[in-house]
Queue: 4 jobs
Job 1
Amino acid sequence: MKTQIAIVGAGPAGMLLAHLLARSGIDAVVLERRDRAYVEGRVRAGVLEQITVDLLRRLDLASRLDREGLVHGGTNLALDGEIFHIDMSALTGGQAVTVYGQQEVMKDLFDAAPARGVKIVWNAEDVVLHGLDGGTPCVTWKDQEGARRLECDFIAGCDGFHGVSRASIPASVLRHYERIYPFGWLGILAEVPPAAHELVYANHERGFALASMRSATRSRYYLQCGLEEKLEDWPDERFWDELCLRLGPAMAAKVARGPSFEKSIAPLRSFVAEPMRWGRLFLAGDAAHIVPPTGAKGLNLAASDVIMLHEGLVEFYKSGQSKGIDGYSARALSRVWKAERFSWWFTSITHRFPEMDGFSRKLQMAELDYIKGSPTAQRGLAENYVGLPVAPMPA
Ligand code: RFL
Ligand code: PHB
């Protein structure tokens, strides 16, 4: 087989890139290790920045998003049960985020794929990238038809944090920057109406809690938990009790309890691999960087990476120039690092750290109190939360 772009991974980065390339008339094939049900079934992101919403609209993939997505012009912070509102829209000249689950985004991307000519190979095992530093790269894998081979011009490594793409770059070239946090998030989904109209990020003495949602009838809640904790230790009643404690009495009165139908623990990590291009390979999304979910940035960074990569590839194929693809890594990393900074900072002011002494706790409380009283501080938070702009292509 032959194509122009081999895309490894059918997550948000891989599928958004595949749709963008299909629209621009650039041939691509997506190779995914799992099946559609697995990729679509993963409960992950919930908050889309405007640039991600605009991308889905540009791709004509937003009709359900525009009907069902919940537009949030504000968010809430809570300190030991006392809640204050941040009017993000007023602070950012009318910008907002949209609550629409990653599962729904994936469904829309997969449903539209066949009619748009987006080719996906499911259950591609043992994917190996070859010839990255030469002129004729290719990808090999195994599936039900046996050993397969795809020749291409470039490879887009969109295979997430544990994928093969980043690992195919020589260690002497790649630099890693990392922070591992001493806690995780325990998340549940329940078919109950959300406690608040907008999200609540709660800093409590006992640890962080987040009240989020998927729709007017489906709630998503998270609790900061220890990395050693097991799901069996968290029956629903314990979860609801702890959530209500951390959100405080005013919010607790509005929490509707019900059986959870999904429960999982995710560790928190900040990670960046540089550069995001090596020879014929480009990394995009979680393959190159991870943020703790506090800032709701992971899926949105996957979207901004592939917007930039797509622009570079279009320039290359339409005008033969390589400035866009040559500048891709630096351009993408400049936005990635700002999201890393924001996600780290937002995590640091909302979570309980094991080594935290009285002084650190007082500083955290002072910072939240400062944000509460200062429109200037709120503007910084709001500007980052709704999403920073994508820098223009290098001239
Ligand atoms: P993905 O989604 O991990 O997709 C990678 C795909 O590659 C496949 N793959 C391979 N395919 C072929 N060969 C191989 N060797 C392969 N290895 C892997 C995998 O099967 C998979 O299908 O990466 P991508 O596309 O870069 O997308 C990243 C996002 O999924 C991720 O950043 C977000 O989910 C992060 N995230 C959030 N992001 C937001 O923007 N807003 C949020 O509110 C938000 N909340 C979250 C989150 C992530 C969470 N968890 C569980 C980590 C909340 C949580 C709890
Ligand atoms: C979610 O709804 O899953 C969600 C919302 C906001 C975050 C992280 C996750 O910061």
Job 2
Amino acid sequence: MAIWNLGSINIDRVYRLDSLPLPGETLTSRSHNSGLGGKGANQSVAAACAGAVTHHLGAMGPGDDWVIERLAARGVDTAHVARMADQATGHAIIMVDDQAENAIVIHPGANRAIDEDHLTRSLTGIGAGDTLLLQNETSGQVAAAQAANAAGARVIYSAAPFDLQAVRQVLPHVTILAMNEGEAAQLFAALPGDLPVQGLLITRGSKGAEYRDLTTGRTHEQASFKVTPVDTTGAGDTFAGYFAAGLDGGLSIPDALRRASAAAALQVTRPGAGDAIPTAAEVDAFLAAQS
Ligand code: RIB
């Protein structure tokens, strides 16, 4: 089995502040770092760290080779990442305050210029039993979901950043819809009634997570592990990538939820997004230390 991830690749430019700026306010940051980010890249790193064979499908501009080298160093297959001479690599301006909350602005660049022909050629290797991950930071989502669905693969769509039109278009091809509680509230308000998917993964940060199996009507709940966060950027991506890898590896839903929750808990204790994602050994040690 393998995970294929059509996902954004961003350079995260992170600024630490006492508090997030109000409209019209100018603030001086205490520190500035650049690191690996993008919801897609973060999910690929998480899935690969969790032990899944992970192929990343995406695009970057020229240069910035450290980004792709860092993805590869975490075990992600980057052979299908296109390099576009006329596009900038996606980047994100991320402000993080003393409560570990953030505000993010992204410039999509190459992430929104992905060529659908290249994408569907890359996906010819996907098969039944594989998983396609998608988030709403790239172009080509519907084409990829259709191709994966036709091949009999599981399709997990993270509806983030939330855009109702994007969800509507991809929903007919989705197996599991992953959202945080804010995104879920927006979706349920806009689309009341049954959704045409097999499962809903809803993450609630420090309040835990749940998986609603719509085929059995059963809900599995997972409490969060108590940690002191320093930066919550990418926690949802870590959860989604570890959860997908758990399913890909044959874990039960409760076991996949528990490992994903542990990975996200560890990830928020470190600064950064993709660079803060723990290895499987670190997750094992964290879980072993729980009473
Ligand atoms: O989910 C966190 C991610 O959102 C960051 O890494 C940033 O790049 C944005 O895509």
Job 3
Amino acid sequence: MSCSNPSRRCPNPRLKLTGSEIRKKFLDYFAARGHRVVPSSSLVPVNDPTLLFTNAGMNQFKEVFLGLEQRDYSRAASSQKCVRAGGKHNDLENVGRTRRHHTFFEMLGNFSFGDYFKQDAIQYAWELVTREFGLPKEKLYVTVFREDDEAEKLWTGTAGVAADRVFRMDEADNFWSMGDTGPCGPCSEIHYDQGPAASEQGHADCAFPCECGRYVEIWNLVFMQFNRFCVKERAGFKTSEERAQHRHSSECLRRESLPQPSIDTGMGLERMAAIVQGKISNFETDLLYPLIERAAEMAGTSYGKKPAADVSLRILADHSRAAAFLVHDGVHPANEGRGYVLRKILRRAARHGKMLMLDGPFLYKMTGKVAEIMSDSYPELLESTQRVAAVVKSEEQRFALSMDDALKRWKELVSEEASQRVRAIPNILPEDWPSLLPYKNGLILPGEKLFQLYDTYGMPWDLMEELANEEGLKLDRAGFDEEMERQRERARASWKGVAKQIFPSVYGSVLARGFTKFDGYQQTTSYDCEVLALVANSELVDEIPAGTRAELVLDHTPFYAESGGQVGDTGLLFAEGTKEDQIGEEAAVVEDTQKPVSGVMANRVLDDGTIVPEADRILFSGIITHRITSRASLRVGDRLTAVVRTENRHATMRNHTATHLLHAALREVLGTHVKQAGSVVEPSRLRFDFAHFTSVEENELVEIERLVNAEVLKNSAVETDVMDLEQAVETGAMALFGEKYQDKVRVVSVHGFSKELCGGTHVSRTGDIGLFKITAEGSISAGVRRLEAVTGEKALEQFQAVTAMVHWVATVVKSSAADLVEMVEKVEKLAESERNLEKQVESLKLKMAQAQLTDLEARIRSVKQVKVLSLRLEALERSQMRSMADFLRQRLQSGVVVLATVSEGKVALIAALTKDLTSRLHAGKIAQAVARKLGGTGGGRPDIAEAGGKSVTELDSVLDEVYDIVGAML
Ligand code: SER
């Protein structure tokens, strides 16, 4: 039974199926039909610079659709976390204003990779919707791409949908693509009729397809057939600027067929939940309503009372989910890329919180609730609740602070603009014109400046509009939009730059020639390596002369390509040698090693027909490219000996294994919430970022170092195994979020201490690390700490350097190292007594200044019943002037104090009022008026202000004039 009142005012819906149950039903249905249920991938797409956030279930299968990657299953189903805010699919501005737009949502999908196609996809979808979920057929409509006769026939034939319920639509509605480039194809959608009550435009009897909100798309079936690509990108750009500036258009975009027709479907979980739970709005389902209630409770209101407040409550519910999931997946507020979008989401929420009169940070309090209601499907959220809350809270606080600055800047901007305007009409205004409001009337604030307010101080447009209305100003929206567009362009350009390893797309065709087998786990020298490809100036070439910078691909190599935080190897390539001496002339210097094409070819069959043994498949890491400078001419087909620079590699291996030990030790000492958030492993040091909300205390660091070094001393074997991902996770191996793993993974373990999924190179026993020493600890952003450490020779160097320094200090102070502690304590005491002496000197100086106050009474006059004191003092510093002004204000109890002193040939002035006079006088204006007579300027707060002047000789007479100056202002 559904709730008797399915409208938005039903606070306690009686559910038919919960969101979790719908998710489960969907996945179980496809699992029973031979689909592998695959976990959701991270919201941060791995290795795909074309995508800002994961925006569809198919993202994690992009390379499978393109034929660049194979899996050991050809059917899959998933419930995928998605964010559509920024990039091609962007719903941000609609969120909260409609019942079914979200930034964060979940997409249920089934996928076929060259297995079934249209017929089964349609059959499954219809059966699931009508039989399993029991939606009445008379409420369903279907759309097909206008040219897709086959799909139409399948819907009416096999599925039995009435012909008048199938509609043909154009490309805009029924042709789906992931982005400007990538897999795409015609699609077919199932829509549900929610009845006239759902019409947002009050339609009583509109027919399908009407955009009024009555008909809801619930499932999109994409018949993936094409890959859209850019011809310019494929040919390769000459420079990185050219790449950054390139915009796709119909001129450069082409379509090619995918290797095999495939299926990608997406059902919006929230929409389905609304329908199944008898709700018109997604926000009233069990997936979102508890969040609305939480927000309403904090704001002391309830949902359904005021339409404007409801919009804000929906925004808070939606944005709290996006914030919780994005931060969990490692996104942090920033000024560009993903972090910028997160910042926008958080600030939009803050603004709506303000509209609900919520004071101080509040959204962070909702992120725990998100974790709680989503924990069924995403239990990992519970592990990061504190970190997520800390990151969100810190951004909220930051925003509140920048809002104060923004309001200040707004006032300045209005004054500046008003002054420009009145300068055009000279001599009609007194000098304090900015305070005269009428001159602001009708003033238009330029878009460029407004954009700065938005961009630098985060002031949202709505707020600017509100302020402008209050103050009778106009805003240049067109100019603002222009600036915004320019900013977007910059963001897009910088986004492309984020993909650190940009490689010419020629690598797509190198794949066709073969792959690189990595044999560097066992050795650092490999013989008989064939040159598969040479890339110079972004183009494939057959030959390069000596002295060329180029990229070179071998069929097998011991060089490790940068990945998982471990830097790429460096070394040398040699020509083939003679029988006696396998190494010939030096052929090239390898400066770096990278992986331009990722993806393990899990089912790879070698050219000679042999099937790669399962345990070795992990070794086929797509292509490895060596960045070289050639020493001799080189040709494709040459056979070379590849030699890795072992001293660097061994140092890197020590640091990599030490990173794993450090990770395990951190979890032991600080808790299991510690999660790796990035690492760099290079020969000279290791750097490890991790989620943790406070600094690591000195005693904790000592304990962490002790634990790691204890493992080093045990000299345990470091073991590597290749196994199924599931098996690895079951045995407790730590997987990193944001990483994309294949089904077969490599697990690196130190018995009883550490077990991690890792493709890096490691020492064979922990004792090889020698010694481990932490060198730095700090914060890189809210909730993320960074540790740096050294091992082996570097750790010894560090130890020797510190010891040498202690001895040096001991020699300088003519003491033994052992006595140094006592010595340092003495120095501390001396410093303390120096600080006390300084304080005494300050107070003595003030007393001496007070001694100058002999003729004080004579200088106090009553001006229009206000006591005014104007006084010259000698040789005072600014800070003493301020203390003196305070002292005199207290003496007067009620009055005005103007003090002046001469220092370094200039006059320093201070004007101060007692609080009771601030409604009648302004210290800033008094200081300014006095300073002007001395050829200077100044200003400040209403109760105290400082100023400076040049005419020292005039000072005494100007001080006598102070009484008149103040009198004129009263
Ligand atoms: N990729 C399609 C979509 O996002 C179907 O999953 O709508």
Job 4
Amino acid sequence: MEQLGVGIIGVGTIGRRHAENVAWRLPRARLAAVADANPATARAVAEALGAPRWYASADELAADPDVQAVLVASSAVAHLDGILAAARHGKDVLCEKPITPTLADADRALAAVAAAGVRLEIGFMRRFDPGFAEAKARLEAGEIGTPVLVKATHRNPSLPPSLLPASGAAAMVGGIFVDSAIHDFDQARWLLGDEVVEVHAVAAPVLDPARPQDQALTTLRFARGGLAAVEVSLTCGYGYDVRAEIVGTAGTLFVGDLRASNCGLATAAGLSQRPVVHWLQRFAEAYLLEVESWVERTLGNQPPLITGRDGRAALEIATAAKRSADEGRAVELPPVG
Ligand code: ISE
């Protein structure tokens, strides 16, 4: 059976999950190598998962002849380096969101990918979540008439490590919008099949002015008149809560379930169920399906499903939301060429 030799750059939280999926759960892929800025981490993951080689740099991994395709899962500030390394060595690449923290770097990445003639896929895993994928299919089948409004709820129990000052997130210029809300922005764009023309956002570090913004509300207006309302909270405390409603002229589709399983508890004190507490838990199947799709499309020489242009579009919305929140005004986006 033909297998794709996959090299993974960045084997922290999400990169480790991708490496496990490639090593254990995807027969058409093999873990050819891993790289991490922390060599000890790269070595430990390689040894734990049976990867034959490990590296301390993106370029060394991308140069490895057994690495046929590169998965970039490093911190967002290192995504450009990973994409450029893959392009330099002629390797197709799947890059986690955001494509890069800034639009200028996104344009550099897209130019390098185009010049090298390699394929760039962006890791918006929600599109592979069975619930969201069903909603998209039923929406396209006309079950709710014309979709006109998307309402997104996206709550983390606490501030993600990628936004903590110690993580070097100072370079994450978009904060809550580029790191977190970007999923909801891509989701709304994908579900409505339309481009955003206006963004209006408010955000606040509600708990402590010295901390990064941890609450944000964003309104999106689309070219054909559709709207989206996106709520992101990074301090909800109770679990990891991602839900959406897609309102159409003939009905509404609902997506999302906070329950970790269908096991509940009933006592004299009342009813209770355990919530989902982490995005790896909530989107475990989506992450596996996302990489499986990328492996199959790469082996089949097919174009990316979620393109670099999709990645840039979501980043443009997130960047505009950050600007809107900072400047206290709506921000218009240039028409899509
Ligand atoms: C994290 O990087 C993710 O991608 C999660 O889906 C999101 O909920 C979280 O806020 C981000 O930090």
